[in-house]
TrEMBL record:
SUPFAM superfamilies: Cytochrome P450. It holds the Pfam family p450. It comes from Streptodolium elevatio. This is Cytochrome P450. Transmembrane segments: none annotated.
Amino acid sequence: MTVETLPLQPADAPVDFPFSWRGDQLPHEIEMLRKEPVKRVRTIAGDEAWLVSSYSLCRQVLEDRRFSLKDTSAPGAPRQYALTIPPEVVNNMGNITGVGLRKAVLKAINPKSEGLEEWMRAYAADLVDGLFAQGAPVDLRSRFANPYSEALHCRILGIPLADAPRLAASLDIAFMNSACPVTGAKLNWDRDMAYMVERLDDPATTGLMAEIAALRGNPDYAHLTDEMLATVGVTMFGAGVISTSAFLTMAVFSLLQHPEVWAELRDDSTKIPGAVDELLRVNLSIGDGLPRVALEDVKLGDVEVRKGELVLVLVEGANFDPEAFDDPHLVDIARPNSDTHLSFGGGQHYCPATALGKKHAEIALETLIARMPDLRLAVPVEQIVWRTGFMKRMPERLHVMW
């Protein structure tokens, strides 16, 4: 009997990225990258890229306009994975700015908008009432984090809450990481776009979609098609829901893994707003790298990145960098610089919904801690199933009891 041996990989051969889909532990490769903060990797799509993992170099990439997000969708550009949305939508806030909609969008996602914070508190409380009515154990992701995020974005967009399930059903495919184009992604996109176009014509539509619809009568916006306007609604719902629900789920999971921190917040709820940034720093929900394409040759650390090459910012590498955060593996809700994390990106593409995302999580945690002070996992942590091949790390189910 013979044993087949695999050929040895050259020492400088690209390593496969991403490293792990698990959200309960930092991939062991992160520590290995401390000695090589700009590392050659091979993506899911089979292309080569530079993976940047130190805090200082990650900030450099995000803030340097010679690294472009828009050009990651250009024909022939190296990719992390196949696109699941039209290429022109990749830099969506850039598109919004280009058509003059940025002001309306920023107004809509401002958590200080009249009545929004009160609505979030009331809806979170209603969801907890539903958890009590069902009785433990419950899946906190499907029964709390997801509907809380979906309802918030329906309210912002001004579309019926009853329609949230049909839009949310697209997200499991829309945020897949696949080497090849996903047929279902285009079907979902076309269906959701048709829905948002209908909302533009619906007199019952309120919120941001109503403001956008009103622009069709303005000659300054005559160049905008209904499809361009509808894109704002589709992308805001998708990106907003998946980001806020994934972080909230992971924030609760982190707290349940650190009962001493949960107890500290239970004893003093005024610490919750400050704790959210530390939970964002240690959160591992970002399952890929933030992509940029070099527009010219750029020196990055000891590496010369060539024009046209793909660069991936490893947020978890930056957020756990001991050069930026003392004792980075410690969850310290009093950490003085926790708000310098890169979980919302940076530079010109810093997430415009940062304040909303923080307030969304803050109110949810306040509600859960106050109403369910003894919340804990209902299954061994080893039994949690982590989603694979997805842009966000998250548990498929997070069963809890109280």
